[in-house]
Amino acid sequence: MLWAGFGISFDEKIVKILLQTPDEIRHQIWKELSRASNDRHHAWRTPVLATACPNGLVNARTVILRTVNMIEGQLQIFTDARSPKITEITAASNAVFVFWSSKLSWQLRVRVTISVLTAGPIADALGSA
User: Fold this and answer.
1) CA distance 103 to 126
2) What is the pLDDT of residues 33-72, one digit of tens each?
3) CA–CA separation, 20 vs 102, rounded Å?
4) pLDDT tier for residue 124 given thresholds of 50, 70 and 90
5) How far apart are CA 63 and CA 77, in angstroms?
6) Which fold has domain 2-116?
7) SS (H, E, C) the chain
8) How far apart are CA 62 and CA 50, in angstroms?
9) Backbone angles phi and psi of 26, in degrees to 5
């Protein structure tokens, strides 16, 4: 399982047309991320995750957004422990999520630091599910 904590950055000039203040923008982004984690039809449910490969190249793939924790600033995705993502993330924990919604006409790029959880209450709960 992967946890990604992040800070949201945006170009105020572009999004100011839709929302008035940075706080309104952040609130709406978190609202959409939360919706996406619960609505399998929301476009942000399946972002692209880009990580660095050990050979210096970049690898990008679609993942499923499982949980959003606005208070902690975390996004949660799951992956198989045998996935190449694990090796890439262990070697370099910086990554980028890219979310696109044609309905919203919004693209969100989120720079993250990812950690792999293989033990603890969350990982244990997944293992017994």
Assistant:
1) 32
2) 999 999 999 999 999 999 988 888 999 999 999 999 999 9
3) 21
4) low
5) 7
6) Pnp Oxidase; Chain A (2.30.110)
7) CEEEEECCCCCHHHHCCCCCCHHHHHHHHHHHHHHHHHCCCCHHHCCEEEEECCCCCEEEEECCCCEEECCCCEEEECCCCCCHHHHHHHHCCEEEEEEEECCCCEEEEEEEEEEECCCCHHHHHHHHC
8) 9
9) -60, -45
